[in-house]
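Sample entry (565 residues):
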Amino acid sequence: MVLVIVSPSLSSALFKVSVRQASARLDRVNSRCSITNADVRFDQVATEEEVQDDLSGSSDCSVPIIQLKTDMLESESLNFLTESSYVDSLLTVLPVLSEEEQNALAATPAHPAGLYALYANCLAGNLVEQLWNFAWPTGIALIHPSLQPVAVIGFFTKLVVIVGGPLVGKLMDHFPRVPAYNCLSFVQAAAQLLSVAMIIHAHTASPAFSSPMLHRPWFVVLVLAGAVERLSGLALGIAMERDWVVLLAGSSRPIALAQANAILSRIDLLCEIAGASLFGILLSKYDPVTCMKLAARLMIWTLPVVLVLTWLTNKLSAGVLDRAKSPQTSCKSFSREPPSDPENIVEIGVNAIKHGWREYVQQPVLPASLAYVLLYFNVVLTPGGLMTAFLTQRGLNPSIIGGFSGLCAFMGVAATFISASLVKRLGTLKAGAVGLIFQASLLTIAVAVYWSGCLSKQTPLLFFLCLIVLSRLGHMSYDVVGAQILQTGIPSTKANLIGTTEVSVASLAEVLMLGVAIVANDVSHFRFLAMLSLLSVVGATWMFCQWLMNPTNEQKSLFHFDPQF
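Predicted structure, serialized as tokens:
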């Protein structure tokens, strides 16, 4: 008869050792013996505290006794497994997927039906937003011939995004996804309708005002409403592109996530083209006030559609959007912040901004995010107001200028297809590097053509524009891939906070470059602005490639599915 004495904390280990090890252990333990015909019997079960006391040296305390028959121990049919044999048995049971099956799984979204509803939601919301982004500057320009009112609204909006972005992101991270999204959809629609009312009032009011346009009450309301609309639209876009799509596609399914990001970018670019074209067609047939009223009706009709599609997205994905983010952190942060005192509210806002910037700097994929921000310093070698003004000063045909902008937009659409293919072939990180290197190479040639001094002729000028158009493939490819890198590296509990802070930093970059352009406003200084834009793209490429070639352990852990690791 063999008597084995064990504690509950050692019972699991006993079943993984051999009988010989159990017998050797018996010699080192103060034991008691009894003889019985029972196979296995527990005489007494000690509590955790009693076992700890027994291990510390108190031999009188009761301990659990397991009595085993010797014929059991000597039997060859004993089912005790060593650790190695246990692991081997698991490996024989668990299925191993082939490479084709792993690729198929990586390309299959976790919630495909929910993703389709998300695409429809994005289409409805972006169409109205892009139409409005084209409508309000047009409506203001038809009132005042100067660019100053539009510039003031744009500048103030950028400042509000820089300051309020982190605060809105923190609020989005601390509230449930669906109610917060619906609330911001109401806020954005209300701000858009208020802006429409102010522009209609400006068109119908008497033009005889003694005060300048910037000092009129309707313009002040328009500026405030425009800032609220842009900030809420920013938060809605960040929530959808950085948080929701990751949950629906699956963060561990890189190909499916890349395809989802590409489709969202495609929808955004197509809505940008469709929104501007739709309002342009309306403006060619009706007066500005009628066009604004039609835009307001579209906003009102679209709001319930967006709300229903939001509910449908969550319903078709088995309620994945209801998944808690960080309830403990949320409760702690809000329980310590009394909202009644205005000074406390200001302090909370300042702390939220500081917290957002601190989290942004401490994120594990900071180099990829900074590369994304550096691309926003490129405000010249890209379709925009400064490039349009430069080409107009060069005397280029307006149809060519319009064709240049249209080709850049379609290159962005093409890049969404290319980016998904690059991720599938090269992996997420190398795909981002390819996009940046392609853009930097083409822009380097374009700047070299400009500095050669031959742009006075139309053929070199068109070649210069073609290089910029082709560079948009690399820019938009990294835009899609960079979003996936950030989605993978940033936890969902901080996705909105870090995402809105990143957009704030990017807006700050745009404001700085616009300030430089205001100082160097002569067309002869365009070459220096072009050089600054090129240096920002080259700097972004160098930073990302350095991060790629010197991976950290955290980077390898986050992107363990990437072919590079």
